[in-house]
Amino acid sequence: MNWQANRLVSVMDRRGWARFGGLLALACLVPALNLAFEDGSVLHLSGYTVTLLGKYLCYALLALSLDLVWGYAGALSLGHGAFFALGGYSMGMYLMRQIGTRGVYGNALLPDFMVFLDWKELPWYWLGFDHFWFALPMMMLVPGLLALVFGWFAFRSRVSGVYFAIITQAMTYALLLAFFRNDMGFGGNNGMTDFKELAGMDLQLATTRAGLYMASLLALAGGYLVSRVVVSSKLGRVATGIRDAESRLRFLGYRVENFKLFLFVLSAMMAGLAGALYVPQVGIINPGEFSPANSIEVAIWVAVGGRGTLYGAIAGALAVNGFKTVLTGLMPNAWLFFLGSLFVVVTLAMPGGLVGVVASLRSRREKRRAVSRVDTSEVAGEQGDTQDG
C-alpha cells in the first residue's frame, strides 16, 4: 500500500502537485457558485453554465484518452467517438429503464420507442440495465471489450500508421449505420431521450447537475492520474519507444502488440466513462455520436493542445470547445471552416500545439535571462579590472 502511494506521489514533482491541486480547487468553485448564491447575485453561476462546463470536462476526458494511445504509443485512433458513444448508450439504457410508467405510453417494461415500434418484450441485452450497479461497469466494459477484440486483430496483423487510422474510422462508421437501424433496439435515428432521474435523483435539480459536474471533474482528475502513472512507468517508456522506433523494439524482443493493446483498451474504457457522464448532462444519446467527424474533432483537440503531454490534450479540448461555443453563437456557418483551418495551421506551424508554443516561449525567456546574466557578470568583471588597474 505504501509502495503504491509512493508510486502515485512520484508521478509529479512538488510544483506539479501544487498546480494540480490548485486547478482542482478552482474547478470546484463552479458548483459552489451555483448552489451557494441566489439567482440575481453577481456571484451566481447559472445552471446552464454548470452543465456546459460539465460537458467540456467529459470532452477533456475523451481527449485525454486519445492522447494516451496516440501521443505515447503512436497509434492514431479515429474511432474514439465510438467508445464514447457506447459508454453513452450504456448510460442511456439505464436512464431509460428509470423512466418506468412516466413515459408517454406508460409502459413499465418497455421504453417508449419500443412500444411505438410494436416490440413485445425487452431484448436480452437490456436485462440488468435497470440496476445502477450493473450499468456502471457496463459503461466501461462494453467499449473496453470492443477495443480488446478490434485491437487484438489490428495489432496482431501489425496494422499501424494511416492504415490503423482508416480502419478505426471504418469501425465507427459501421457502428453509426448499425445504430441507425430501428431493429437494433436502441431507438434508431432518434436515439434515447426524455430521461427523468439518475440513481433516484431528479436530473432537473440543481444539486443533481452540480453532482454530475463534480463526477465529471473527479473522473477527469482520476483519468489524468492513472494516465500519468502509466506513462511514467516502464510500460510508458516502452510505449514511447514503440512510437519512435517500433521496428527496433520488436528486434529487442518486446511484444509490441501487447503494449499497444493494453493502452488501447484502457483508453477506450476512459472514453466510455466520458460518454456515460456526458449523456445525463446533455439529456440525449443518438447515433450521431458515432459520426466519423466527431472522432476527427477529438484528434484536433489533442493536436491543438499538444499530443504526448496529457495536460495538453485537456487544454486543447477545453480551448477548442470554449471557442466553438462562442463562434457557433456568432457565426454558425463559419465553425467548420475555422476548425479545418485550425488543424492545418497547427500541423504546419505548431507541431507541439499550445504546450509547444508555451515551452518555446519559456525557453527563449530563459536564454535571454542567461545572456543577460553573462553580460552583467562580464561588465562587473571589467569594472573590477579597471579599479584594480
Could you characterize what this model shows?
The chain has 389 residues and is an all-alpha fold. It is 72% helix and 2% strand. It is built from 14 helices and 4 strands. The strands form 2 sheets. Strands 1-4 form a two-stranded antiparallel ribbon. α3 packs across α11. The longest helix is centred in the C-terminal third of the chain and has 36 residues, at 353-388. It starts with a helix and ends with a helix. The model has no long low-confidence stretch (mean pLDDT 89).
Name a few traits of the molecule.
14 helices, mainly alpha, about 400 residues, two-stranded antiparallel ribbon, 4 strands, globular
Q: Tally of extended strands?
A: 4
How far apart are the termini? 67 Å
The 3D shape can be described as globular
Class of secondary structure makeup: mainly alpha
**Could you describe the largest sheet, including whether it forms a barrel?**
2 strands, antiparallel
Order of helices and strands: HHHHHHHEEEHHHEHHHH
- Strand portion, in percent? under 5%
